[in-house]
Amino acid sequence: MQDLNLCATEKRGLHKLEAGKNLIGWDEVVQGSVLTSFEGDASSVAHLKQEERDYSHFNSYTATVASWRVKKPVFNIDVCIDCQNCWVWCPDSSIISRDKQMLGIDYDHCKGCEVCVEVCPTNPKSLLMFSEQEDLENALSQWPEKKKKEKK
Amino acid sequence: MAEKFDLQEREVWDGNYAASQAMRQAKVDVMAAYPITPSTPIVENYGAYVANGYIDGEFVMVESEHAAMSACVGASAAGGRVATATSSQGFALMVEVLYQASGMRLPIVLNVVNRALASPLNVRGDHADMYLGLDAGWIQFGAFNAQEAYDLALCAFKIGENHDVRLPVMVHQDGFITSHTAQNVYPLTDKVAYSFVGDIDPVDDMLDFSRPVTYGAQTEEDWHFEHKAKQHKAIIDSVPVIEEVFSEFEKISGRKYKRVESYMMEDAEVAIVALGTTVETSRVAAMKMREQGIKAGVVAPRVFRPFPFNLIREALENVKSVAVLDRSSPGGAMGALFNEISAALYTTPKRPLVTNYIYGLGGRDFAVQDAIDIYHDQKANADVGHITTDIQQFSGLRGPKLGFFQTKRS
Predict the structure, then answer these.
(1) At a CB cut-off of 8 Å and minimum separation 6, what does A123 contact?
(2) How far is it, in rounded angstroms, from Cα B287 to Cα B264?
(3) Nearest to residue B379, comparing CAs of B279, B231, B272, B223?
(4) Rounded to whole angstroms, how far apart are CA atoms B37 and B113?
(5) What value does the mean pLDDT take over residues A111-122?
(6) Residue B227 — φ and ψ, nearest 5°?
(7) Which of A40, B95, B204, B380 has CA atoms 20 to 30 A from the CA of B34?
(8) Nearest by CB to A17, which of B212, B213, B222?
(9) ipTM over 0.85
(10) Measured on CA atoms in the order B139, B141, B146, B147, is the torsion positive or negative?
């Protein structure tokens, strides 16, 4: 089936805070909550893919906001036509697309806003919202049939 | 560029013009403002200097004071030298963004021309807006006249932009009394003033594309406390920088500024603590009291934030009775300045008697005679050794006397 963790690199989550570990004191925090995006010089990162970039450990890319989500979007590769509509509209850049091919959803940064589902033009939709606890295979097996046009 | 701005050795300026001249000489890059009485001429003049080519700056048109300070935050984060001015309701609308600016450690300079807060609507000066911003995490200076409004505005740039400080700075002056009264002001030449302030050297500027940064990140309970602790320490630790800049300014101008301005306090028995133009009124009253043989003095915090706790203690610990004058309606409490001064005095062994006077709200005149009456009250307290009146009184209010928190009299 689909591999939805394509974008997770080894570096991701490396500096995630664990209780009692890695905690620094008030005197060591970055002045003015200014976070640097990349390690070292970043003048040539624009053409790099996310997983190739040298993110600083302050960057929000290394932190997860998955806990904000109540429902998650599930992506069905069999229905998708790679129109990139969801990729364009996603407010959190959480749709992973490479070479104009949809690969899946970055569940570390998706906040479950449902915009991707709303803009998906296929019939049936190739992205649908499911409960956070629903596992992937179960969700795909419940996918609706193609809707017939209603006669007027 | 237009031709050089002609300055005489001695100019006749009001407080607003003086503050705008400081902005011109510091070559402010960006100003975003939504002009409000009585601070309007400051931004108006800046616009004129830009339009006439005296400086290379940008005046940003905005739709409210909230947007004005927001634009200033953006411009300062981008790495520019930023200043603006406001008063009263405009200041109140800015307050939310003031906390953003100090939390992001952006050295913005804000000229506040103090004015009453509505309602009732009033354009005259009192300190209601100043008191509103005391916890905003900004360094705050008080200018008692036009000359000081000019001098402190120049110092504000140098202090705020210092890499050890990196905090926004407010310079307060009294609405209309300072801002619209023309006085003799001795300006520095453009060259001397600019070499004093120096070029801005921004830290973490957003226009540095080789090192992108995020400003004002979300921290929740994980890191907010730590950031606030560091910010508070930064303000407290700005004291040596403030003193260094003041002494540097003394060298080029001959005018000496201290964090607490004491007047005839060496042997004083009774004292008034006040802010703004009231300080000069009280000094005249103190002089007259001395002629009557009453040892009177005036203590005025020049720097409200960081609050000069130790200096206030030193200045007042040998005084017998102190009157703290608050020019803002306390809203069901003691005046804010009273609270701070009495907190400082409570930790001294002798603990002088302290009373609170609310005066001059909405621009009500505070005359020398009012200060003299207050000194006489204090003298009576000092003689009997306890407070003889209500602890909080309204001075200059029409109608029967108004006072609160009676003292027990045996």
Answers:
(1) A146, A147
(2) 9
(3) B272
(4) 8
(5) 95
(6) -65, -40
(7) B204
(8) B222
(9) no
(10) negative
b/e sequence B346-361, b meaning 16+ C-beta within 10 Å:
eeeeeebbbbbbbbbb
Chains A, B: CB pairs < 8 Å: 67
Tell which residue, B25, B63, B65, B62, has the closest CA to residue B45: B25
Q: Is A26 near chain B, with CB under 8 Å? A: yes
Across the interface, of A29, A36, A60, the residue whose CB is closest to B227 is A29
Dihedrals φ, ψ of B213, to 5°?
-135, 155
Is B130's pLDDT higher than 70?
Answer: yes
> How far, CA to CA in Å, does A73 sit from each of A11, A46, B233?
25, 28, 45
pLDDT band at A60 (very low <50, low <70, confident <90, very high): confident
Task: Count CB-CB contacts under 10 A for residue A47.
Answer: 6
CB-based contact B212 A35, cutoff 8 Å: no
- For B326, the token pair is 């608050």
B149 in Cβ contact with B143 (< 8 Å): yes
Report how far residue A70's alpha carbon sits from residue B349's, in angstroms, rounded to the nearest whole number. 60
Omega prior to B202 cis, within 30 of 0: no
Q: Which of B82, B81, B94 is nearest to B36 (CA)?
A: B94
Instruction: Give the global pTM.
Output: 0.86
For residue B66, the distance in angstroms to the closest alpha carbon of chain A comes to 20
How far, in Å, are A16, B112, B236, B330, B336 from residue B343 at the CA level? 43, 26, 17, 17, 11
Compute the distance between CA of residue A60 and CA of residue B130 in angstroms, rounded to an integer. Answer: 37
What is the C-alpha to C-alpha distance for residues B366 and B277, in angstroms, rounded to an integer? 9
The residue of chain A with its CA nearest to that of B106 is A32
In total, chain A counts a number of residues equal to 152
Task: Count CA atoms closer than 13 A to B14's CA, side-chain side.
Answer: 17
The rounded distance, in Å, linking the Cα atoms of B410 and B365 is 36
